[in-house]
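Pasting two entries for a bug report.
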Amino acid sequence: MSKNDRLISCNREWTGIAILTKNGKRVFLDYSQIKEIRIGYYTITKLFSKKTTEKIEIIAKGSKKPIVLTKLMDWDRFDQYKQEISKFATDNKIPLVTLD
């Protein structure tokens, strides 16, 4: 992933989003393919340490696992992603769950 790659980008009409997964694969989903979007916290365990970070979780129809994006993946733009995904969910009437 290069420095200019965004993890989430909405298309011009705000009807679809492109997501860069942690494997480096770009996935495009339009609003009808998304069941729910969750914004909350995520705990990552590595060897002897635990880190709690923010996450955006996108649940797509027909997918077994949600797409999870964490703040550690793109620290600088994560707050912007949260604003954009919230607007996208509201505009397209997708359930947006905020977990504390």
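Entry 2 (this is the one that rendered wrong in the viewer):
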Amino acid sequence: MSSATAQVGNFSWNSTAPASTLNFVPCYQNYSCARLEVPLDWSDTTDNDTVILAIIKLSTEVDHNDKRYGGSIIINPGGPGDSGVQEILNRGREIQNIVESSDKEERYFDIVSFDPRGVGNTLPPLSCFPDLLSSYLWKEAVQAEGLVDSSEHAEDYLWSRTQAIGTACTDTEKGSADIGPYMNTWSTAHDLRHLAQLLQSDSNQDAKLQYWGYSYGTLLGITYASLFPDQVHRMVLDGVVDALGWYSGHLSTSFRDTDLVVDSFFRYCHRAGYPRCAFADASANALPNSEDETEAISYLQKRLTDILEDLKVTPLWTSQPCPEIITYSDVKTLLKTALYAPNDLFPILATILSDLEQRNASSMAAWKAALREETQPSHCLDSACQSSAPCREACRYGSRIELTEGIACLDLSQKLINITQEEYSELYLKPVLESSYWIGDTFADFYMPCASWKGKGPGSFEGPIGAQNMSTPILFVSNTLDPVTPLADAHAMSALFNGSVVLEQHAEGHCSYASHSLCTEHHIKSYFRTGELPPEGTLCETEIHPFWAEEVTKRSRF
């Protein structure tokens, strides 16, 4: 998250009047915000119940009447359940710098996003707990109990907990305006279409969406393009989800490249050597032939396996920077997180593993503390939050696990409702565990709550996925090795949309922003500016690599 903190000033979401039109007011110093009323149920717009979407805009420097003005690009950061407001506060300026240009074909864009249904400052919120403190304590308890394979009874504990939360989140006693059944991707795609329409100079015309979606945001984009293929002007889908697998509940193939990304950690570490990679220091257990890369990588793999096996039996404890224990599940979670952003996190992973090997848990404890802080907003989302404890309602934030689970379960349209633990284990848990040796267990409980998630969206998406009559071809973007959205899925989804192209970025990590490539930025800029797609088979090299990123001075961007 960004270390910068935007000051709220006099802005408050609660004091900003919602409307059926976009009435933007200044917020967070350099941004504009609005609260937009949309139907709770897009399949019955005569119903008076509404959702109030929290919208944020980073305006471009040119006037909307200027011929260089290119319109608004809507961003979805993924999750599902991540806050679009936070995304623009954290990365909006970076995104704007990528898409805007100052050459003879210059275009300037407003960057817009929103908190999706149930998320952040969009109302009503998903209600599973009486307050945010209860939600926070629940999350801490789940983490303490560990991953499905961390102990003899861990799977049973997780199953019971997920059934409890699935039932609580879909409690029908909460009232008719509860968001629970209405936060599926189909509903959000209709919100997206409505927002795109209102952002146009003539809001009476059909929407012509300009969109950049990351991770789950690609699933939202694929759903939108399948529903409204003639209402797309530009669409970049970055870190591509297999929509066929998502809607059927079969995601084990999403992890086909995961262990290859882990292998890249060992390879980069060995090539960088010590001290660039702290885990390359084998002084305690000297490697016989350190010049043999295959042998060196196998040796690093064994050392990580030994660390995990030791922690599974006996957790480490530390009093610094605060009292903490380090478990097998903690290190698996760290490993999973590092695979998303290798340039930033592989060096941290290496340092922590080196410390743990020496029975020093302080660096891992510091990482756990930092991870907890990241669940709080990096920008005060409401003026009341500045004088409140972080678990007060004024400090609502996105990325709560129940949001992710709820959207995923609703998109399955009750395909797993009332499934037993034994059936779940055979159909989902075992295939996911087998799909990735290193981190399959971190995803194995993903669909567990769906056995008791009783809500069903009134307008669930039933397909078909894809379109042959797109108004504009889609640009799909994927890293060569992505831990959760493999390159093969980008090609599979591209094949369903006539004229679309896959741009491959030669890097590891999740989504193009996991690395830095002037080539990738050039093609994305050109596409938003003119609609020009890169030639089929384009491979973009990157300027930075794990353990070497600090030596790279970023050059001026296109």
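Dev reply: Rendering is fixed now. As a check, the viewer should reflect this: The chain has three domains: 25-123+185-249+462-535, 129-178+415-452, 258-374.
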